[in-house]
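pinned: reference chain
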Amino acid sequence: MAFTPANPRQKRHPYRSIQRSTELDIGRLCFAAVKPLAGARFFAERSRLGFSITNYRLYQKTVCDMTMPTFNPQEEYVLRTSVFTLALILLVLFTSPALAFMAEGEGCGTGSCIDCHSLSKEEASEIFKPIGGEVHAVEHAEVPGLWRIELNTKGRTIPLYLDYSKSYMIAGDVIRLKDRKNITDKRFQELNPLDTGSLQLDDALLLGSSDAKTEVIVFTDPHCPYCSKLHKEMLEAVKQRPDIAFRIKLLPYKKTSKLPTKTILCNKSLAMLEQAFAGEQLPPPLCETDQGEQNIQQARELGIRSTPTLVLPNGQIAPGYKKVKDLLELIDGATPAG
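pinned: its structure tokens
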């Protein structure tokens, strides 16, 4: 049935006002009903019903900021119906009991229903058999949807992760964003404490009292800026806590640290180390020593790759700079009771 405009002047655009209103309404709906799906639905309906899609103009100022074609009355009806139908489908989907748990933060979709999933050491051993090693322990990881597998291999125990589908293994660092803690490395250190009694400390510099009940070993580099910052915190720590002392071993990782390290070791001088931290030029070494290179080799064998690095009383390794408050808490947490 042909449309005859009431006003001949409207012949060219008989539905301008209706069309603009329709575009705005559909724009709002497409934003609410997921605009990529709505946009695809528009063109699919036009094509299915045989409408031309070659003659359209762009309407740039819709609420969801997507390209909208022009419509005739029949197209308007189809599109309105399509968008309302799509919105209704999405509403039903996301409010149905079957899917409600996902929105409410309950159930397996969030990884909280650990009772739904099980993994025995025997099953884990079979899964990890191609990798080699012996499964030491299996438990649900801090990360939802994952197990943490502790695998004994080559004399060490390493934490690995397996997803609940038992199809994917994750190896490497997992960082907790809220406090930027490396939970993988933390667990590795807990599983693989060093035997501090095996460390050779004859060359170590003493910061604090030789009678201190608690000793912490520190690997440092004379030209490392973070080592310098940590040293200041260590000075404050021994002031606050005379029962704590630090044994400082030099790791000359930087090329510029080689000669200053020799000078400090030859003199066994804590004052010279502090001069180096302050950027002062040290005199040439008065002896020849390769103790710095020996320290580097020992550190590598222990898995220490950076400075500064602390070796706590319980043998755990704690790399990086720490403020005095955190430093003392770390030491107290790693000190055996009594």
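why pinned: The domain at 117-191 is CATH 3.10.450 (Nuclear Transport Factor 2; Chain: A,). The chain has three domains: 12-103, 117-191, 196-333.
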